[in-house]
What we know:
Helix content: 25-40%
Radius of gyration: 28 Å
Strand order of the largest sheet: 4-13-12-11-10-7-6-5
Amino acid sequence: MKVREYFIIISIALTLSLIAIAQFWTPALWFFIIIGPLIILGIFDIFQTSHTIRRNFPLLGRFRYILESIRPEIMQYFVETDTEGRPLNRILRSLIYRRAKGENDTEPFGTQMDLYHSGYEWLEHSMYAKTNPKDIGEFPRLLIGGKDCKQPYSSSLLNISAMSFGSLSNNAVMALNKGAKMGNFAHNTGEGAISDYHLEHGGDLIWQIGTGYFGCRHEDGTFNETTFRKNAIRPEVKMIEIKLSQGAKPGHGGILPASKNTEEIAKIRHVQPGVAVHSPPSHSAFSDPIQFMYFIKNLRELSDGKPVGFKLCLGRKQEFMDFCEAMIFTGILPDFITVDGGEGGTGAAPVEFSNSMGMPLREGLIFVHDTLVGFGLRKEIKVIVAGKIITGFHMARALALGADGCNSARAMMLSIGCIQALQCNTNTCPVGVATQNASLVKGLVVEDKAPRAKRYQEATIHSFLELVAAAGLNSPQDLEREHISKRVGLYDVKTYAEIYPNIEEGSLLNIDTIPEDYKKFFHLTRIMK
Length: 529
């Protein structure tokens, strides 16, 4: 006999029993207040056709879906260890929270990391370490702007990575922007355009232009120079970033769910409200590397000479080589390049794209840096990285591998209250960070969260400077690949300089000096002499 049959028999028996008892004791009928709804639910389960479990196991089958719905919370709070959580483990999350609150961020009793596991990395310290981070300069800045830039920007080494209003709530945007203003670092708008919330507190903005050209588009979705210039010349906008692709969904374009596309957001983005908004996978303003360089030049002129760069998650290496050749051919250079890794985050992306597309950050950064060096372009272009930049060590590793500065998104979200509930794509974020639900957004108090973003960024910069000082270096720019060691096997350790040997300056400009690893990217008809 199956559970379904047992349920039917038990339901009939209970009903008849209560009716019989009520003949002698009328209050027995009150039990139907509890039993009646359960029987009705069970009957509904038997006759519905969507869920086999509920059909075969009426009432009992519902517990399966209840437990499944709270599985992320059970895993996070009771099952996973401090080092196992994904995307960010508890050690990293706790570190962000403590720094954001200004609490003690030290750890007791030694590391929980497995130092003998393949992939473990460390920064090599010096016997002649500096005694204080101030010895290498308090909060060094990064000047971004090439030879054609008229308004170079003095940037922090750690800024807020791209997250759009729409993906984030208005209070989350204001908290991040106010934190950026308080801490003198920059806030990337994401591709969702500049909203009033980005402007309210006057924090420095990096305006990101995506394939949908939100905030600077015609009705047909093409680029609009007039509306671009109107926003680009705002004093809050310090740099322009053209988004070619992002790590979580390269080649796919952004997605704004219909539930988040309110009338306010639609007005800012110049789209129709209440519908899912899919950004095109590629740009319509250019279709080849030469056109792209002239597009960069056009944006620089329209913005009165502000720094213009582009963001990409590296895919086909050949295409980045084409960009570099186009830079040399046209003489037009971006002021900066932001390299995103395949481990980068997003509020919503197809699983296949998140898991199986896009080069990881370290390999992407190394290739971009080395290629620019090989073409003799590296000194003219700043390289920024994004993709799980959480701690001072992550910053040190990125700069050692070739970056000039770093951006962080998820750490900044956590600093203002994100609990990694993994509900960014459902409009039900319980802490009001990644939702447009007004009731949930109200719980995020800007005045309380903004200082947390500022404190997290400041503490992480301090930690980074302490690492640089411990390595005995005079400046963050002195970090090299030889300073980071990586365990590549149980008995084998190599520095990044050994794993990824440095390329010679200008070696890609002559057929006789092209490194072996790069020869496959050149054809006889295109080799530069």
